[in-house]
Amino acid sequence: MIHAALLALVLSAAEPAGLYFEQTTVVRPKGAAAASTPEAGRPSGGPGVRSRVWHAGRRLRLEAGDVAGGPALVLRLDDGRALRLDPEAKVAVELDAARLRARSHEDASVAASLMGGEETLRPTPLQGVRTIAGHRCRGFRLRGRQTTLDVWVAEDVPAGPGVFADFLEWSGAAQALGGLVAAIRELPGFPLETRTRVSVLGETQETIATVTAIRVGPQPAELFEVPAGWRVETE
């Protein structure tokens, strides 16, 4: 859930005061027929997995599923805590942050081995413009030995250096995917769609992550806290 929901942030250099976005991720074999005709701001290939991300400084909240307010993962990088929130049971589980970090580092290392994350990727502009989540986007292609990544970025979404450096350092993605992250951070905008094609043993798989809604601005502090009256447990 972490890597799918945070793809747009992990691969960006945006540093807004606060940020909320909704994203849909579709995974399919390359060449598979799309389940429906793609619309502006929506990926083809079926409904995919929906997720929501709130970002405020060194605090993150992630939810998956079609309905907001469900189970959530809260990462408090400001005080080294990770929480899994279950609103139905009104329980907050304190996760083992070291174990979660090790798992994230392992996932990033596996991705790097498949994608050639340390190699230098050369961006080339794609033709045309697209409107995604209401924003005009330009496209760029990054090509490596086994990976092709098309990224559509919006220049009008506030950007600045290093928003996600803390998370990248914490998860190990910055080290494992250094070449890929560095290449995308050179692009002139915030990624609203990424289309990744990875070939392994002759099989090519596409992952399409599309931001369908995005809002920049301060986020409510209570989103990153355990609600009053909830039981707190340890993993």
Can you walk through the features of this model?
The protein has 235 residues and is of the alpha+beta class. It has a twelve-stranded mixed beta sheet with strand order 7-8-9-10-11-1-2-3-4-5-6-12. A hairpin with a 2-residue loop joins strand 2 (49-56) and strand 3. It has six helices and twelve strands.
The CATH architecture name reads Clam
Count of helices? 6
Shape: globular
Mean residue pLDDT: 76
Number of domain modules: 1
In short:
The chain has 235 residues and is an alpha+beta fold.
Fold blueprint:
Layout: H1 2-5, H2 7-10, E1 19-29, E2 49-56, E3 59-64, E4 72-76, E5 81-86, E6 91-94, H3 97-115, E7 122-132, E8 135-143, E9 147-154, H4 165-171, H5 173-176, H6 178-185, E10 190-200, E11 203-216, E12 231-234
Parallel strand pairs: 6-12
Antiparallel strand pairs: 1-2, 1-11, 2-3, 3-4, 4-5, 5-6, 7-8, 8-9, 9-10, 10-11
Note the main attributes of this structure.
outer membrane lipoprotein receptor (LolB), chain A, alpha+beta, 6 helices, 235 residues, single chain
